[in-house]
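Feature request, filed as a ticket because there's no other form

It would be nice if the structure record came with a short human-readable summary line next to the tokens. Right now we just get the raw output. Example of a typical job, pasted below so the devs can see what we mean:
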Amino acid sequence: MIVVYLLYMMNYVEGGASMSDLKMYERATWDWRRCRCQLPRFVYRLLDPRDRAVRYVGATGCTLEQRLINHIAASKGCGKQAAQPLYAWIRALATMGFTPVIQELGLVPWGRITEVEEYEIDRHKRSGCHLFNNRNRGYPEPYCQHF
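Raw output as currently delivered:
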């Protein structure tokens, strides 16, 4: 995709871009986006750094480092999302000088991500973890508990 884009831009700058060049670039971009959507996803969990208790199970298409940064940024926001128990917990940790620990559970094909995430949430709840997951997935018991 990058090579096609560079070739297109070189032709464009030199004034020699044609409609077929543009269509080739658009097709390569679309193929790249479609393939990117089908890349494997990480299933991960957030641990309390003080006692290593599992507090959240999630899935992401970005790197685990970036997902943790996104969680921390969301906890600093305002509105409904920042009011969620997960983000209240992250803010409470921050006031004590801690950040959650993110841990990979596995890399999953994109078509099975919801199934595997629900399985992991269920598995962790059944093992006694008090998760902050706000989606009612997995084992049906209270899932937002005080920290």
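Something like this underneath would help us a lot:
The CA atoms of residues 40 and 109 lie 4 Å apart.
The chain has five helices and three strands.
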